[in-house]
Amino acid sequence: MTQKKPRIEINKNDRSLSVEKVDAILNGAMQEFLTHGYTATTMDKVTAAAGVSKTTVYSYFQDKEGLFVALIERLAQEKCLIIQEPEFLQGEPRIVLQRIATNIFAQVEKEPEFLGLVRLIIGESGRFPLLAQTFVSNLDKPALELVSQYFAEHKELQLSEPEVAARIFLGSLVHFVIFQHLLHGQDVLPLERDRLIDNLINLITLNLPKNREADQYSGTRQKSARRKRSASGKFKMDYGCEPKHLRSVRLTDTAWEKLAEIAEQNNLTRSEMIEIFARQGFASNQHIAGDKGQVTGA
C-alpha cells in the first residue's frame, strides 16, 4: 500500500502566498487538462505549467484526481456563488427566471474555458464516472436545489412538481448550451436564445394571474397580419373610406378575455372584433369569414 503524501499546514503568515500558489497550480492544471485531456495530463506537466515545484503541487493535491476535483470545486464556487446571493432571487418570477437564464448564457459566452472543461468531462465520463459525478454534484445539483426551492416557495406559480419544473427549466438551458456550442448545432437547427428564454418563462409562469392593467391594451399593440400598409407606411382602412377615431370601451375582465380568445382564433385584433360585433352582432350559429373578417351565417 502506498503512503499518501502529507499535506502542508498553512499558517496565517503564509496564507496569501499559499492562495497564490494554489491559483497558479489550478490555472496550470486547467491549461494542461484542456490541451491534453485528462488521461494524458501528468502532475509533472501541471508542475511545469504552474511554475512551482513538484513538492508544492503534491503538498496541496495528493494526486491528479484530487487536483481535477479541486478544479471542479473552484469552478462550482465561482459559477454558483452569484445565484446564492439573496438579491439574485429577488423580484417577481418572470424577472428572476430571466436573470437566471441570462446569467447562464453570459457565463458560457464570456468563458470558453468552461465549455472546454464540460466537453472534457463528457468525453471522459465513460472511463472516469466519478469525475462526472463530481461535476454534477458541485454544479448541477446546487443549482437545481436552489431553483426547486424557489418554485416551491412561490405558490402563485401553481407548480405541482417544483423539482420537475426546475429540471425542465435548467435542463432546457443546459441542452441549448450543449447542442448549440458543443455539438455545433446552431447551423443545423438554429434558434435564438431569447426566443428559448421567453418561451420557457411563459411555460413556467403559465398559471400566474394576468397583469390586467398591461393586458387590457394589448389588442392595440398587436397588429393583424392581414392588414396592409400603403406606400407611405400607413395602415389602409379596413372599411372603405370611413374615418376612424380612437374610442374607449369598458368591458368586464371575463368579457375582455373572451374577446381576446375569439380574436386570436380568427387572426384579428380585439379592436377589429369589436368593430365586427358592433356592425353585425354575433350569434352562436355565425362564424368569422371573408377577407375583411365579416360575420356570416353558418
UniProtKB/TrEMBL annotation:
Residues 42-61 bind DNA. PROSITE patterns: HTH_TETR_1, HTH_TETR_2. The keyword Manganese does not apply. Keywords: DNA-binding, Transcription, Transcription regulation. Residues 19-79 form the HTH tetR-type domain. Residues 215-236 are annotated as: Disordered. Pfam families: TetR_C_7, TetR_N. Transmembrane segments: none annotated. It comes from the Bacteria. This is TetR family transcriptional regulator.
